[in-house]
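Allow me, if you will, to draw on your knowledge of protein folds for a short while. I have a record of one protein: its chain in single-letter code and its fold written as discrete structure tokens. I should value your view on which stretches of the chain appear to form regular backbone elements. Thank you for your consideration; the sequence and its tokens are set out here:
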Amino acid sequence: MKRVVIIFLLSILSFNIAFTQNASYNYATSTGTIGTGYNWIDCSTGGTEITSFSQGNAKNGRQEINWPFAFSFYDDNYTTSDQLSIATNGFIRLDANASASWVGVNAYTLNSGGTGFGQIVALCLYNDNFEDAVSHLYYKTTGSSPNRILTVEYNNVEIERYADKYADVQVSFYETSNKVVIKFGDDNITQVGADMGIHSGVSGYFNKWQEVESGTNNTWIEYTRPVKTFNSIVYNQASTGDVIQNQNNAEIMRIDVKVNGGTGTLNLNSIEITADNDADADIASSGVKLYRTTTTTFSTVNMLGTAQSLSGGTATFSSLSYDLPDGTTYIWAVYDIASS
């Protein structure tokens, strides 16, 4: 056998096919009044209060907690092995540890270019602290799988140290729907510049809702991922290693399918492989297979469709009806090599 070459033809059924830059998108938003649509979740009852910190203290500190369920934010998918970094200075970072410096937060502005703090949810981003006895930082998980809610509550957080001015703010992360809801309760803040909203860490992909001082009390904003859209396909040679007789799952090609957004359905319906081998018999019967992974490491855990045989130099995988998730799905074409 001299050559093993394949060509992919993909059929994708979707709607609103579009392309965006940097494999990112902005969230759809809606707002309302607390008590209508969304209620305040009291984390002081049944929740966990954060009183110790991985870095710093109650005035300039942060503490990490594990996700209680899988969650997707912008183009990143988090699992229960990942952590949120909760900063006393009024924000939560998802992609890395939050800054605990009051100097940095006072200089930060939540705008298009505000990428310096990474991927964040800003609740009252400023020089905040929890030193006062009335101030509490809680988190709590409610509901049952697959509809759990993780809420982080900044209860009577003092905005601007020694100001004796306080605010109630919380954010809820919704399992399965991957919605983010920020809720703003009461406050008597006079300090301007405490931002509320979200940022992807990528320039241009953010939303500034309001500031605490000028914002409307007892309101919420809901962030919903947009309808899924096809972004791109990239083909890669999966391996440069030799293939030998009787070898199973020889990695031939990897195709990277990138999707933006998180709602709706974007089905991968079929894949046709055209082989440029010396002969169909080089490949074992039912020896053409597809697998999918979420990383660039090959695995046989998730098979896509059923194994096929080469016939006339082609193998067609039809009726796949695989709903492509947000982010990149890696599809591997593998061969079982014949014994002769």
About this structure: The longest helix spans residues 102-107. The chain is about 0% helix and 45% strand.
